[in-house]
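User: Structure please.
Assistant: Input sequence and predicted structure:
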Amino acid sequence: RFRKHLRQSADGTGGGVGGSSGSASRLKAYEERAKHEEAQNAEKMQRSDPRTVLYGDIIQLRHLRTKRFLRIRAKSHASLQQTSRRVDIHTGSSSSWIRVNPFFGHKA
């Protein structure tokens, strides 16, 4: 969202009121926030150590080459198997969080 807003603000199509100096300062603030968020995300990825994934864990699967996340499309089904959900690669959102559940329920 930051990137889209940055582009709109830079083009002057952001729809905001005020002069260009106000939009320039907002643009700078958005750029700083985006850089800070990217640095936090990179630091979190470095800190996270590889561990065993357990049932009930929430994970995100990241494509190595494109750096995008695997997303499950809840409203559409897969083209080859109608009982499965469509999966694609996306920049990341709440639909890219996947909870690992067993296919069959087992009693402990």
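The CA atoms of residues 59 and 100 lie 8 Å apart.
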